[in-house]
Amino acid sequence: MSSTISEPKAYRAGKLAKLIDGLRYQGGIGQWSWLVHRVTGLGILLFLVIHVVDTFFVVFNPALYDHTVAIYGGVFGGTYYWPLRWAFRLAELGLIATVLFHAVNGVRVILFDFWNEGCKYQKESFRAVLLVFLALMIPAAIAVILPLATAPEHITQIPENVATARP
Amino acid sequence: MARNRIKPAGGFELTAWYFMRISGLVLVFLAVGHLFIMHIANNVENINYAFVAGRWADPRTGWIWRLWDLCMIGLAMFHGFNGLRQILDEHVHGAKARVAMHTTIWTVMTALIVLGTYAIWMFQEDRAYVEQWKAMNAKAVALQPPGAIHPSGGSHAAIRGKLPNIAGD
Q1: pLDDT of the residue at A24
Q2: I want to staple B80 with a disulfide (CB 3.0 to 4.6 A). Which of A27, A45, A105, B14 is the partner?
């Protein structure tokens, strides 16, 4: 905890300079964990908006739902594209990483708020967060990426919608 | 020992402060559990209408999954959009812009909660669709000898041509 209090930061003019200087704000680990927590939160929210809308298809159009989720497996318009499958797999891993980081670091933030001594250990606790995050991510990455080693076993055939009573 | 962290004095902001922490803790279990079920225990490529129907419309356990998802969508939407509001509050300063920003955030959030809740609550399994889906895919699997579609060491490009066309002509 040996730190000298530094001079207040003077921002240069201009939005870009302000952004760059802002990112070099002398907060160290605390600043970066704060920033990453915000960015991961925004990323999850953006995903959730898409996820709620695509899941809504399930209630009124089963075939549209099946065609939509087939894209996540690399099938678009009835044809299988392996780069599409790879892209979605990597994005899936990114989503898992984003949620796991936000969850584990969120617990750290809650500990600071309800345990007065917590802030003293903010650097050590961030290392613990990274350690827990990595420990969870390694098996998750194996589980998500391993299926890419083999081609999909078969492509699901999607029927036309059958006219039945809908809610 | 004085508090190290600041916390809102009262009113809406204090409620929001407590909500973010409590919903955050609950979501650690609900959202991470959901990710585990969908991405680790299952393969996303197997998630489709029949899978969702099998969860939500199960006569015994369906209500558990629906309750899980209802809690998750409500908490996640309030948590996410309140987080967005807190970020934007620090960057949007004009009075009119703030009103517009808050109105947009709460409107979009309400719309998404209504959409998601409607889907989870009102879902009814389309039996005819699932039956047809099962019949079509039982035939597709039977037509393909395993060796033809899953050759050892086969590349994706080599396999592409052998896959059935799901458009179903």
Answers
A1: 67
A2: A45
Please check whether residue A103 is in contact with residue B27, taking contact to mean a CB–CB distance below 8 angstroms: yes
ipTM, 2 decimals? 0.84
**d(Cα B74, Cα B52) in Å, to the nearest integer?**
19
Which residues of chain B have a pLDDT value below 50? 1-2, 145-169
Q: What is the pLDDT of residue A6?
A: 62
> Which residues on A lie below 8 Å from B80 (Cβ)?
41, 44-45, 48
The answer to whether residues A98 and A43 touch, using CB atoms and an 8 Å cutoff, is yes
Instruction: Give the domain ranges of chain A.
Output: 28-149
Does B87 sit within 8 Å of A152, measured CB to CB?
A: no
Q: How far is B61 from chain A (nearest CA, A)?
A: 19
Q: Is A110 touching B (CB cutoff 8 A)?
A: yes
Question: For chain A, which ranges sit under pLDDT 50?
Answer: 1, 165, 167
Rounded Cα distance between A45 and A39, Å, is 10
pLDDT attached to residue B155: 40
Each residue of A18-48: pLDDT tens digit? 777 767 666 678 888 999 999 999 999 999 9
Host H or E run for residue A131? helix A122-145
Closest CA to A73 of A94, A60, A87, A61: A87
CA B13, CA B79: separation in Å to the nearest integer?
A: 13
Q: Right CATH number for A28-149 from 2.40.128, 1.10.10, 3.30.450, 1.20.1300?
A: 1.20.1300
In this predicted structure, what is the pLDDT of residue B146? 45
Q: How far apart are CA A57 and CA A66, in angstroms?
A: 9
The residue count of chain B comes to 169
In this complex, do B168 and A70 lie within 8 Å of one another by their Cβ atoms?
A: no
CB contact under 8 A, A52 and B73: yes
B96/chain A closest Cα distance in angstroms? 22
Q: What is the pLDDT of residue A10?
A: 66
